[in-house]
Amino acid sequence: MHPVGNEFLLDRSAHQLAARSGLFEKGDPKGAITSQSFILRLNTIVSRQYSEVKRRIPASLSDAISASGWLNKYAELVAFGQWLLVDGHPGMLKKGGKQPNPHMILQSVAVALYELNFRPKLKEHGLAQAERKSRTREITKRDLAEQWRKLLGEKKEPSFFDSRLRSMKRILPAYLEHLESGHFVVDGKMIKKSPEIELVLKAITEKCTAGPETKIPAMTKPVTSEPADLSPFEIELRYSSPAQEEEYRNCAGASPPPPHLRYLPTATSSTSTSGAVRADLKDKIALVPDVAIRDAYKVVALIDRIVLLVNTATQTDYSALRMSIAKNAGGSPYVHDLTISQGEEIGVRKSRFQTCQRRPGIISQS
Questions:
Q1: Which of 101-105, 266-270, 338-342 has the highest mean pLDDT?
Q2: pTM
Q3: Sheet containing 334-337: which strands, arranged edge to edge?
Q4: Which residues have CB under 8 Å from 252's CB, separation 6+?
Q5: Which positions ≥6 away from 94 have C-beta within 8 Å?
Q6: Which of 83-97, 186-200, 318-332 has the lowest mean pLDDT?
Q7: Other CB atoms within 10 A of residue 219 CB
Q8: Alpha-carbon span 157 to 146, nearest angstrom
Q9: Residue 137 · residue 204 · CB < 8 Å
Q10: Where are the beta strands (DSSP E) in 106-181?
Q11: The most confident of 71-85, 204-218, 274-288, 330-344, by mean pLDDT
Q12: How far apart are CA 356 and CA 364, in angstroms?
């Protein structure tokens, strides 16, 4: 998916989220005037990337608290941000020395939340990249560096996150203990559990226990008669490495968010008048990309041209060269004499021409 089209979709998603719920606000977090605005804008950046498209999104933070005190996924970053930035992180003991930047900690947690939600979908559909043998945690500083650049548009070295990870390992347990104490109350409703934040803490603290990689060929797996899951799913269209993304996208300034492609698994059906499904398609599904080209993209112009530089051995008029090309190659080329300056007569010296061959049916720009 083209990054411009993907940015259009994400921008529309952010607008829809902000219109539907008080948990979101459209805009760049850097331009936020208040801490609350910073939290909501950051939550919008993360939530608009989730592959799940929920029909019902909580209208407010209190609406996101279940009867048992569990927070909805779309509200966890907001609640943590309120405790960290707005309320002054009550219940956490202050440590001597330089204090961590709370805005930076909130951004780091946001990036970790996105990474945790995205990675299982790759593995589920067999698209996950091979894990590094040196990986010791589920989320590492390299993961944070890669996603930070994609979500927030800033390039950070992995070493930048050494101190942030240490601070997260100290701050997140204090936050979760504060929830368990029953002191976080919103409109009379008590927040007791933040499942996604708990997963982030586990991912950055517990050692990775994954065994050696063993790839099982698909044909050797036992065949079962379980019904296929027809739930829509979404994948991120990643480059194989950050270096290749930087080379091929060549974006100046902030990198656009990573493109996503949504698939709609569809059961195969008959296309013949008999109504019978072909034997090789029976009990199979097709993965259909869910892309609305007409609604999602706006085509401004399509430019396609070939430029040739021609040196002539004798005095040549540009019109003669244009007629010769049109006669022998077809089309209607544009020819410009590069040796002629303003006020100079044609054919004073040997000519050097630039020709532009317009292709039929294609919008040209000269």
A1: 101-105
A2: 0.55
A3: 305-311, 352-358, 334-337
A4: none
A5: none
A6: 318-332
A7: 6
A8: 9
A9: yes
A10: none
A11: 71-85
A12: 9
